[in-house]
Amino acid sequence: MGDHSDTVEAVFEAVARTAPEIRAALPGRRAETAGKNPSGELRLAADDYADDLLEERLGAIDGVGQYASEETAEAVDTGDGLSVAVDPLDGSSNLKPNNTMGTIVGVYDAPLPAAGRDLVGATYVLYGPITTMAAAAEGEVTEYVVTDGERESVRADLSLPDDPAVYGFGGRVPDWTDDFSSFVERIESDESLRLRYGGSMIGDVNQVLTYGGIFAYPALESAPEGKLRLQFEGNPVGYIVETAGGRSSDGERSILDIDPDELHGRVPVYVGSTELIDRLEDTLN
Ligand code: F6P
Question: Which domains does the chain have, with CATH numbers?
Answer without folding.
Answer: 5-155 (3.30.540.10), 166-284 (3.40.190.80)
